[in-house]
Amino acid sequence: MSTFAAIELLRRALSAHQRAMDVSGHNVANANTPGFTRQEVVLSSVPPAAGSSRFRTTLLVGGGVQVSGVRQARNEFLDRQLREARQAHAEAQARLDYLAQVEAALPEPSDSGLGELLARFWNAWQELSLSPESGAARTALVQQASVLVDALRQTYNRVEELRQHTDAVAAGHVRELNALAAEVAALNVEVARLEVSGQRALDLRDRREQLLARLHQLADVSSVETDTGEVLVFLQGRELVGPAGRTTAVQIQAPVPGGVHTFQWPDGTPLQVRRGELAAVLQARDVDAPDLASRLDALAVNLRDAVNALHTMGYDLSGSPGEPFFVGSGAANLQVNPTVRADPSRVAAADAPGEPGNGAQALAIAQLRGLPAVDGAYQALVAEVGVRAREARRQVELRALLTDQLQLRREATSGVSLDEEMANMLRSQHAYDAAARMVRTVDEMVRTLLDMVGR
User: Fold this and answer.
1) Which member of 35, 256, 262, 388 lies 3.0 to 4.6 Å from 210 by CB, making a disulfide possible if both were Cys?
2) What pTM was computed for the model?
3) How many whole angstroms separate alpha carbon 393 and alpha carbon 100?
4) Tens digit of pLDDT for each residue in 369-383?
5) Distance between CA atoms of 3 and 7, rounded to whole angstroms?
């Protein structure tokens, strides 16, 4: 090897180990950066220069070391597992958030819950059957009935408010989905532009991976990387992010008064999401909340019909036939008959006319307590919500545990270890110092040779 070839060899060594120290420093600087993936310098030896055989020697000396590239310490299979686990956790958490709000709308057991108010309502009829001529007992019954229907109406309204809230959350998620897709498309352009020139856009890839992870949390998207380094994203079999920065935005249609947003593709096809946070929110908005409202409506109608059926068969204090005790078409507008509310003597407590002390009809209504279509239906509803909420909490805890385990495994593979980076930096520094000493030695050799030639 010539003296000048040795200088070139050492130049490569200095450059390679300087690059290795730069990468170690970059890793250390981003040790606490969310989503950062540890980078590694790939070093390779330089083969002997072509034509070395002309020296007719079997001892061929290589050309030193070079940087073949910089790669990320990434496990694609583990990353995919982590994305799926985070998606399942986000879906379970959204489900739990909805059920927690439903539990707040049905505060059981408590003094203000519908179960307790129903019990007080039946008790008021029982008290009236014992004192059918008592104005106080009649007034207490009417007041207790008013409290019950007010609470039922408020519960129904809270369910409707919850449905509107989940609709607003769903619209926000779709807007976020479109924004994330647009950002991924913009990063695709930057990554392709850099990597087509032979560079590696590793930090841009980290940012894009974070965006893809959030997209997977929101919906059941799929992605594939092209030869140019771009990532194509698909949802419902449709292209959400395409090549060359192209995106397809999900359209959001404003709701009519009292309605909800609709989401569709540009060709009018409705958006359908099967997994993820958005799927759980849409399930709550389109299925669970309407079902809960329907069951409250059914409870109100059954209460109205059961009480009215007996009340219209009775007689009030004046001996007149009873009229409907409740009026209204459902939970949203059920109320005590204004005529009865204004004059509690119109409560039909007797089962025969002209017997003011007769409370047989009031007793018959009191014996409706425990009616499967009213008390039983409400108890079943509360129990079902409680079971679902408990199962949702268990799922959240289970998914969180799995996500944490996968995150730890990813950190072990792709995370930055400060001890390891310091060891790598010291190794590169020693190699750099050794190459620098060799440069000085070769320099002295060249100076000696020039001095000899000069003399």
Assistant:
1) 35
2) 0.85
3) 10
4) 999 999 999 999 999
5) 6
